[in-house]
Amino acid sequence: MNKTYQYFHNILISYFQGTLTQNEIKNLDDLPFTINKLSQWSDFLSDFEESFRDYDEDLYFEWIEYKEYAKDTAPTIKGLSHSLEEFIKHNILEDEFIEWACWHNGDCGETTSGIFENNSIEFFCLYFIPERYKSLEFSFYEKVIPLIKRSIDISYGEFIIKLYLLVEKERKSLYFFLKEYINGSKSEEDLEKYFIKKFNRNLDRFKFDLSKFPYKEELNRYKKEGLSIDDFIKVMENKIFIKGKAIQISVNEPYEWSEGELLGIVEEDLDAKKLKVRLNKNIKGKNLSSDFLLLSPRYENEDFSKLLQNKSVTAGGALIKDNSDEFEYILIADIMLYNE
User: Which residue in 27, 133, 169, 203 is a FRET match for 90, CA 20 to 30 A apart?
Assistant: First the structure.
């Protein structure tokens, strides 16, 4: 039975977006033709399209006409994550991943009209991977997947800083420059120049200066108080930006809890492991009464970044007094962002 145009369309779109790798396509049981290698230098897409043309020229030209103006031919968050996971499992080679991720180098240098889901993964595919893939270690690809998955929930500036911190050479560069800024050896003007030189690109949506640096407030506090650069690096790695968001707190323990489900507003997102929350009502403990709760993940391998993926986090909560060291552990609960 001959395949319809939609069958091939779905395969090709899935390849462009990354939800099907070239090996997965080659292993499709119902693919009606063999994908022949055009030459030792040809890429997979060219090989597939030419084999597709040999199979049915009319369907091939229908695809080519669509592709020229298509908006859905760029890697997606889901597809980029899937392709990275397949690479880590050794189901595709590094060269095959790079060939796909640097999709704009296909078609003899001509790009499609594909639009990325956000500027962060566009930067990753159009600049970061092409510029650095020869020096990236395998461990980088393992560590970058959670960041790719969070890219829809965090700012472009936050993504860029967290991305570069995953590369040891860039981590050291940031470490020593920011250390000099904290100890007063470098000025704010020096910091601006450093960011522009390191992160800026020609297109307006990839401009990066001090205004895009999401940790400026914390950095200046560390400078003012003479705090440790090591601790500040941890802040950049771990901080999540959910200040002002509403959360719901479904209490699991103590079993005799009588206050029902709690709601609260995140007043301080201290880092991915600690949230200060103002509750919708005052809670009385054995020794303390307060409407402030300090939350920390119960399990070591969890943090509150999962909230940004609309997932729950099991956390322990302590009543605290604002501007005081007083606290009292009071509950264990499942935490989620609250969507009315």
Answer: 169
